[in-house]
Amino acid sequence: MEGPSLVILSEELKSFVNKRVLDVSGNSKQDILRLCGRKIKEIKSWGKHLLIRLDKFSVRIHFLMFGSYRINEKKDSAPRLSLACKDGEINFYSCSVSFIEEDIDEIYDWKIDIMSDEWDEKNIRQKIKKGKNSMVCDVLMNQNIFAGVGNIIKNEVLFNLHLHPETLIKDLSSRQIKDLVKEARDYSFKFYEWKKIYELKKHWQIYRKSKCPRCGFPVKIKPTGKGMRRSFYCTGCQVKYKK
DNA sequence: TATAATGTTTGAAC
DNA sequence: AGTTCAAACATTAT
């Protein structure tokens, strides 16, 4: 689940804010019973984290690759964490649950969350320029730079910029780095809009495609970078730049 | 049915 | 001591 999906989830959970947790269950190994009786003060996301701030501490949910949730519904499988409030319940499945004792505003840097109002392009450009020998595919997936960007966004952004995923940062011009930061942000908001109307897959141009929509060349699939996450790229129009 | 995939943490090995 | 990397975790559509 990528950043924009977490923003959608936080919005779907708005009605739980200012509600008290009346019942807790789930197969999480954490001490989830401490949630019982606590009041939900705020629900927001940072990157791929869902953050539920309560009156005494916060809960962090990470969906990793397979996590899912249901609001006022249940799946057949056992929830990792289930929270019941007065007028509804939230069920989280196969996700990572952890507690945060500190004030989340102290430990999360909102300026690097791709969906945040505090997103700071200049700051991101500076961070990117520190890793001259990194590949652009790794930089986009780096949660300490582009918190919330996942493999779909990575592939689509690189396609839109005509960039080969293995291009090194030192081979990009300042202009290209500026465009990279801008496009990652812009595409994430398109992702958000499309996902809300269930049209996400419809707009994929390169991710899981076999033929380039721009030039008709075959799409190459290759695990790239240190992360070795799958890159889908056009063998014709996504070039490895040399400054 | 086997495979692959919107991801990260952990801890062993070097 | 710092880096690297495989393993673990876990689900479901194709």
How would you characterize the overall build of this protein?
By secondary structure, the protein is an alpha+beta fold. It has two domains: 3-107, N-terminal domain of MutM-like DNA repair proteins (Alpha-Beta Barrel); 110-234, Orthogonal Bundle (Helicase, Ruva Protein, domain 3). Helix content is 26%, strand content 22%. The protein is built from six helices and ten strands. The strands form three sheets. The protein has a four-stranded antiparallel β-sheet, with no helix packed on it. A four-stranded antiparallel β-sheet has the order 2-3-4-8, covered by helices on one side. Helix 1 (3-12) packs parallel to helix 6 (174-196), helix 3 packs across helix 6 (174-196) and helix 5 (151-160) crosses helix 6 (174-196). The model has no long low-confidence stretch (mean pLDDT 94). The protein binds a DNA duplex (14 and 14 nucleotides) through helix 5.
Q: What would a concise description of this structure say?
A:
This protein is of the alpha+beta class and 243 residues long. The protein is 26% helix and 22% strand. The protein starts with a helix and ends in a 9-residue tail after the last strand.
